[in-house]
Design a protein that fits this description.
By secondary structure, this protein is α+β, with helices and mostly antiparallel strands. It is built from three helices and four strands. The chain has two domains: 44 residues, no CATH class; 30 residues. It has a two-stranded antiparallel ribbon. It has a two-stranded antiparallel ribbon with strand order 3-4.
Length: 76
């Protein structure tokens, strides 16, 4: 079976594609599977994941930056 890769760094995870998300560690709904290193780093708030539609939704970098900042303060 094919293994799932980390959505942050691309490394292979120990989980098969067919493994249900309830049976995994490091899976974030709406984001995907993270390896243990990226999952642990993310819990330290060294990086965040934003919804990808933000990039197209906001017409300029100033608006995008403001939206990312709001997302950060509302969710972290």
């Amino acid at each position: 079976m094919a293994k799932d890769n980390c959505v942050a760094c691309g490394s292979e995870t120990p989980y098969d594609f067919e493994t249900h998300i309830d049976m995994r560690n490091g899976y974030i709904e709406g984001v995907g599977q993270l390896c243990i290193n990226c999952y642990n780093e993310g819990s330290k708030k060294d990086f965040i994941a934003i919804p990808k539609h933000y990039v197209k939704q906001f017409s300029n970098d100033l608006e995008l930056g403001a939206a990312v900042r709001r997302f950060y303060y509302n969710n972290y």
